[in-house]
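Please check this protein record:
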Amino acid sequence: MPKGTQMVDWITSDSPVPYLDAVAEMEARANAIAAGTATEAVWLLEHPPLYTAGTSADIADLKDPDRFPVFKTRRGGQYTYHGPGQRVAYVMLDLSQRGRDVRAYVERLEAWVIAALAEFNVTGEVRQGRVGVWVSRPEKPALPDGSPREDKIAAIGVRMRRWVSFHGISINVEPDLSHFDGIVPCGIEGHGVTSLVDLGLPVTMNDLDVALKRSFFDVFGGH
């Protein structure tokens, strides 16, 4: 199928989705896409408060193991928080039709997040050795080594099965940022976590969804 002609099914869940239910749904959809019996999909949802441990997670980074349920997951990455006020986008794409290059796919996910944030005049950036999308915070005190403070606004973690992607991204709209205190997010010390509302932007989940859908097709193609 030529690039840009793929049909992408957009699914939005209005109520928080239990984590294990979401994983089961993703795996089933990914298998169906690989088998050619389902179209690609982007699933927009929220989770109840929980922590997930990716394949590189270090138990020392789980600072408060009794705070919320903790789920081991086979996506890449370390510890991440999910909860209300955070938009999770699970992305199930057939990379055999889009180029079998996982690194390029992750870079596209980053570009997608950055393009969506730009619609709210937020400059998202990526940093070598630090997964996710970051926002400079020059108004905050510098780190002890003198480097400028940067806060994470989006996390990325992916998994592949038969060249179909699942898991994806999470963007902080208005979660309770104190819930990140129970982990070292993605194993990165020093820098903090922010959200669109924390940055002073009255953005709703629906506002972000519109921006995500518009920028997705600019980055990935399809319709």
